[in-house]
Every structure is written in structure tokens, then in C-alpha cells.
Amino acid sequence: MVFKKKEKKVPAGFNSVNEFFDYLYKKEDLIWMGQNTNHLQKDKHIENALIEAAKKRDYCKYPPPEGFPELKELILKDLELDPELQDIQITASATEALYLAISSVLHHTYNTIASDPGYLIINNFANRFGNHVKEVPIYNEDCGYKLTPKLIKEYIDMDTKLIILIDPLNPLGRAYTEEEIKEIAEIAKENDIYLLHDITYKDFSKNHTLVAKYAPKHTITIYSFSKIFGMAGLRIGAVIASPDLIRKMRSSVINDLGTNSLAQKAGIAGLKSKNEWINEVKETCFKNQEIIKEAVDETPGTFLPVYPSDANMMVIDVSKTGLSPTAICDYLLKEKNIFVREGNYTSKLFANKYIRVSYSIPTEQILVFKKEFKNAILTLQEENNIKMKD
After folding, report:
1. How many CA atoms lie within 13 Å of 212's alpha carbon, on the beta-carbon side?
2. I need a labelling partner for 269 at 20 to 30 A (CA). Which of 77, 254, 300, 335 fits?
3. Domains along the chain?
4. By the 8 A CB rule, do 217 and 255 touch?
5. Average pLDDT, consecutive stretches of 10 residues, N- to C-terminus, the chain (390 residues)
6. Which residues of 237-263 are buried (b: 16+ CB within 10 A; e: fewer)?
7. Which of 288, 342, 349, 294 lies closest to 318 in space, CA to CA?
8. H/E segment holding residue 286
9. Dist. CA 129–CA 196, nearest whole Å
10. CA 163 – CA 186 distance, rounded (Å)
11. How far apart are CA 132 and CA 113, in angstroms?
12. How far apart are CA 356 and CA 36, in angstroms?
């Protein structure tokens, strides 16, 4: 059976999804809260590295196929991982890293455990190369809005080969404790299965623990430059795993003439300068979270399932407003120039319950959101003759 990717819903008023995102990309005054991108990153080291590499016309040459050795070393150092136990492949985005990893470990008889909500692109890859994905409902207080060790044990079976651990979790922003990470690592080792640890948002978290430190042979770590480094448009990431597993992945690499050399130079500069700017970015994000919570607390029928978030995004539950997430997102974009994301991007089971907002943007823009969010809910309720119950 050939896997067929589900077609994306075309937003109202546009002829295609591509046209929609082209519109967003070119709209310079847009308040960008819909893609978890980091607009607080103002580091000149990254910018200067790009300019210098372009002026030297480094883009005329192919870079090394595995990535610049300096970049590989800096990533492992950033994660405090042992280069004797872990190898690394630089990729054209964390998405490519996910595809490469999943295609290398799954077989048509294997199943995968993932959460719902979660990052559905990963599930699509697992469905393509494996048998099926067990999407575990985690949108509830009982499990703390995350895929717990207890839930993993309930859903695992003899054909399970992969556990997807997004940490912190997109879209909820929930992270794992060190004890939970240790327990999940033990589950992987005892059952001889792989843990795919997507750590795209780890640097926004107050505390974070790598599964690779407790189960190095069973962990695939996905690394991204898109979020904390503010380099989403440069499309660069990495996959980290045991040398044997990375060797297997390299036999499947399509992009075997290397990853964008300018993006790699920017990554090197970002890693070297990270300690100079990361605290400012995180502090602004924490401040912005507080402002969003104020907006939600003032808006009847809405609440934050997870607060504070350990990522640069959070979920606002709107299920008691009588409004659909799509209606809210459309109104904010078309009427108020604010781009937020509806739930169907990150959930099949709970898509009608929430919107996702990211806040790694200037605080003055968050203040605009605070003003307009409550007004949007009240306006839409009035237009649709919806009355809130006391």
C-alpha cells in the first residue's frame, strides 16, 4: 500500500496553502504568533556570519556531506553529549532529520507511539514507513498534558519500535522531569525500542534533560536551529544517535552534497555566541507568557491548560466560548493582522478545543494581542448570537 499524505486545508480566501503562506511571509506588519518562530533573536554574530560567507562567495562550493566538523562538535558540546557514544548528521532542517531517522528505523510491521496533541508531521512520517501510529490522547489533567511513562506502558506491545517524545511538547509547552526521562529511557532499553527525542524547543525551558544521557544506544535526538536561534528560514538542523545508527541513516541520505553552507556558518556563529543572548530571549518569553495569561483570564470561556509553558508557545482552550478555533483564527488574521494557529494543525482528537499562540515576538506586539483577543471573542459571540452561561 502506498502512503498518501493527507491534503492540507486551504484557508478561506486563498487558492492554495502555498498562496496563503506566501501572503503571510510578505506581510511585514503581521503579528507572527502562528508558527513558533523566534523574532526576538537580534544577534549580530549570526547576521555577520551570513554576510561574510556570502561576500566570500562560499555558496559556490559544496560543503562536507556530513556537515562542517566544527558545527558537529559545537552541537555535541551544546548538548553535553559524549562524541564517543553519539554521532551527528547535519540536515536541511529538523524536518529532514525526522524523515531520515524514522525512515531508517521503521518497517511496515512496526508501530509507533505518539501523543495527541503533538506535531502531526512526525506521525505522518511514522505512518509512511511503519504499520501505524498509536496516537495517545493526552489533553487532560490526569496525565498532566503529556505522554507519561504510565501511558507508554499501557500502549506498548511486541510490535512497537518507536516512541515519539516531543520535549517540550508542541503545542502545549509541557516538558518532562528528569525522573520521567529516566523512566522512559528504561522502558526503551527493556523493550529494545527507539526513542525519538525532538528537542526543538528545549532552550526555552527552565530545566531540560536529554534521554540520550540515559539511553544513548536507543535514542535519536532531533536538533533544530529554527527556534531559539531564530533561523527558521535558513532550514538547518541535525540528527544525533549512536554511531551505528547514524551510519545506517547516512546510507539513505538524499542530500549527499551537504547542507547549505551559509546556514552552517550561521549555526556555528549562533552556538559560539549563545550565552551572550539566550537569557534575554527567554526572559522576554516568560514576560510575554504572563501578558497572554492576563488576556485569557479576562476572557470568559477561555483558559490555559498548561501554564507556565516550557516552550515559546502555548495552547488557549476556547471550547467553552461557543466559537470554533477556525473562526477565531480567521477573525484575528483578517481583522486584526494577528496570525495564530487553529488546533487541527497539531491534533486530530482535540482540534476543536484550542488555538495555539507563540510569543517569541516583541512584547509590544503581545500587548496588541492582549487587547484584541478578548474583543475578538466578544465580537464573534455577538455576531453569532452566542450568550455565555453564568
Report:
1. 28
2. 254
3. 17-41+274-383 (3.90.1150.10), 44-273 (3.40.640.10)
4. no
5. 64 92 95 97 93 96 97 98 97 97 96 97 96 97 98 98 98 98 98 98 97 98 98 98 96 92 98 97 98 98 98 98 97 97 96 98 98 97 82
6. bbbbbbeebbeebeeebeeeebbbbbb
7. 342
8. helix 261-297
9. 15
10. 13
11. 9
12. 9
pLDDT score of 42 = 86
Answer whether 76's CB lies under 8 Å from 86's CB.
yes
Sign for the pseudo-dihedral over CA of 339, 344, 347, 351: positive
Q: What is the pLDDT of residue 4?
A: 53
Asked if 228 contacts 86 with a C-beta cutoff of 8 angstroms, the reply is: no
Chain centre distance of CA 216: 22
Q: Which cell numbers hold the place of 129?
A: 514507513
User: Which amino acid makes up residue 68?
Assistant: F
Question: Whose CA is closest to 112, among 147, 151, 156?
Answer: 156
Q: Are 236 and 264 in contact (CB under 8 A)?
A: yes
Structure confidence at residue 1 (pLDDT): 43
The set of cell numbers assigned to 69 is 566538523
CA distances from 262 to 52, 56, 77, 93, 224 (A): 9, 10, 21, 13, 16
**Residue 10 near residue 22, CB atoms below 8 Å:** no
Q: Which residues contact 380 (CB under 8 A, 6 or more apart)?
A: 323, 327, 328, 331, 386
Cα 252 from Cα 323, distance rounded (Å)? 46
pLDDT of residue 2: 47
Q: Which amino acid is at 359?
A: Y
Whether 61 and 261 have beta carbons less than 8 Å apart is answered as yes
Q: How far is the C-alpha of 329 from the C-alpha of 340, rounded, in Å? A: 6
Nearest to 276 by CA among 45, 40, 75, 78: 45
